[in-house]
Design brief:
DNA-binding transcription factor activity; about 90% helix; about 80 residues; Tscrpt_reg_HTH_DeoR_CS; DNA binding; Putative DeoR family transcriptional regulator, stage III sporulation protein D; transcription regulation
């Protein structure tokens, strides 16, 4: 069972790095919860592969810094769609 979790953590990390994906997007693709993705990349991955963990951290930090911008765009689109009806 432990091997599966380690493999999943590495696959999740590779996906996040390649796609510059958010935790939510990654969870959707892998069919696991956001909590699982977060735990895999913040707790398990540094013990398995610190180099990849550092790269994932950079992507997640960038996504976190841009989060308020994406939220604002989503809200804008929501209200534009409502006004068209």
């Amino acid at each position: 069972m432990k091997d599966y979790i380690e493999e999943r953590a590495i696959e999740i990390a590779k996906y996040i790095i390649k796609e510059q994906a958010t935790v939510r997007q990654t969870a959707s693709v892998f069919g696991v919860s956001k909590s699982t993705v977060h735990k895999d990349v913040t707790e398990r991955l540094p013990k398995i592969n610190p180099l990849i963990a550092g790269k994932v951290k950079k992507v997640l930090d960038k996504n976190k810094a841009e989060r308020h911008i994406r939220g604002g765009k989503a809200t804008k689109m929501k209200y534009q769609a409502l006004n068209r009806q």
